[in-house]
Automatic annotation (TrEMBL):
Pathway: Amino-acid biosynthesis; L-proline biosynthesis; L-proline from L-glutamate 5-semialdehyde: step 1/1. The keyword Cytoplasm applies. The gene is proC. Catalyzes the reduction of 1-pyrroline-5-carboxylate (PCA) to L-proline. NADP(+) binds at residues 73-76. Residues 165-270 form the Pyrroline-5-carboxylate reductase dimerisation domain. This is Pyrroline-5-carboxylate reductase. Its EC number is 1.5.1.2. It comes from Devosia chinhatensis.
């Protein structure tokens, strides 16, 4: 039996892009639909579709419930306001699992009046069970709370637990936001193909399938990324010519480092709001 069966009622507050990605992952991994309720003042198409597909309870009926796990998936900018409305939902037995970027365990605990808080950072491949999450448990989190949070996050993919909460800002910058960097690389590679005279739809097909194929190969072959890169690189060939540009001192590595620093700083800023 999946660990998800043992968690009991889960309330997802914020049925947006990431909330729905997680909810789909949980339901696909065996969370009983009767144990999941959605709270979102204006549920979008994806939320309504999910609710319809699985017969989920949405909004008003949900608010009378004190769930075993309250998952907070609203934007960091409004989380303080949203927490003010959630006091009646927090029972003695309620664990809070936040996925909000930057928002500290201390402010979550203060806002909700409970120390049973896990702060986490998943990413959107959660929707197909291929995500990765970082997580930190607050000081009042018991072993069984941590197991429940781990089961929810593990349904979405891999989970890495950290002792230091500050590490989650770096996790956010690397893997939380990371899928967007890869999608942007597909856009950039397609644009480069178009600049070389390929039709737009063909350039996009080539770029997209190249990233899909490379990711699938990396999943199937445990060799380090550097070895997989070397396997593409014939001596003095075309890839070597391109990598001379990408791996130059002003190439992809310093660019990504700047991008990750910017994301980390933004995560820290969001936490100060
Ligand atoms: N997107 C991602 O890849 C990731 C996001 N996160 C975190 O997840 C959280 C949500 O991000 P994301 O899904 O991208 O954002 P979205 O805007 O897509 O989702 C937030 C949802 O919360 C809803 N909402 C607004 N007010 C309330 C309320 N009072 N009660 C309940 N729900 C409310 C919004 O509705 P409406 O649109 O009508 O305002 C929206 O549906 C953020 O904290 C973000 O940091 C974490 C990891 C990855
Ligand atoms: O862009 C954001 O702020 C959120 C957090 C990580 C991914 N999306």
């Amino acid at each position: 039996m999946s660990r998800l069966h043992e968690i009991g009622p889960v309330m997802l507050v914020g049925a947006g892009k990431m909330g729905i990605a997680l909810a789909r992952g949980w339901l696909d991994a065996g969370l009983p639909p009767g144990n999941l309720v959605l709270v979102d003042p204006v549920p979008g198409d994806a939320a309504r579709e999910l609710a319809e597909d699985f017969g989920l309870v949405i909004n008003s009926e949900a608010l009378g419930l004190q769930p075993n796990v309250l998952v907070l998936a609203v934007k960091p900018q409004i989380i303080a306001e949203v927490m003010k409305t959630l006091a009646p939902v927090i029972g003695n037995h309620t664990l809070v699992l936040s996925i909000a970027a930057g928002v500290s365990i201390a402010s979550l605990s203060e806002g909700l009046g409970t120390g049973r808080v896990v702060r986490s950072m998943p990413n959107t491949p959660a929707q197909i069970g291929k995500g990765i999450s970082g997580a930190v448990a607050g000081p009042d989190v018991a072993r069984q709370d941590r197991d429940a949070a781990d089961a929810l996050l593990a349904a979405a993919g891999q989970v890495v637990w950290f002792d230091a909460e500050g590490d989650l800002d770096a996790v956010t910058a690397v893997s939380g936001s990371g899928p967007a960097y890869v999608f942007n690389m597909v856009e950039a590679l397609a644009a480069a193909g178009i600049a070389q005279g390929l039709p737009e739809h063909v350039a996009m097909q080539l770029a997209r399938q190249t990233v899909i194929g490379a990711a699938a190969l990396m999943e199937a072959d445990p060799a380090p990324a550097s070895v997989l890169r070397q396997n593409v690189t014939s001596p003095n060939g075309t890839t070597a010519a391109a990598l001379d540009v990408l791996m130059a001192s002003d190439g992809l590595t310093p660019l990504l480092e700047r991008a990750v620093v910017a994301a980390r700083q933004r995560s820290e800023e969001l936490g100060r709001n």
